[in-house]
Amino acid sequence: MVEKHRHCINCGISIPPNEYFCSKKCEIEFNSRRRKAMMFQWILFGLLFFVFMILLFASAKS
Ligand SMILES: [Zn+2]
After folding, report:
1. Model confidence at 61: pLDDT above 90
2. How far is the CA of 20 from the centre of ligand 1 (A)?
3. Cys-Cys with 21: which of 27, 40, 43, 62 at CB 3.0–4.6 Å?
4. At 42, is the secondary structure helix, strand, or coil?
5. Distance CA 47, CA 62 (A)
């Protein structure tokens, strides 16, 4: 089954099948949101790594 239209990946409204966004504004909005999400993921990863290192050092001492 082939869909005859897509949905804007930012706001979800119907758009032509060869487009990803309904407007330039949505594209910019989506990219900045994705950047923020990626940054958050890296911060989370960094924190997990930090906690892991602390646990590693704490267990190595005893
Ligand atoms: Zn949109």
Report:
1. no
2. 9
3. 27
4. helix
5. 23
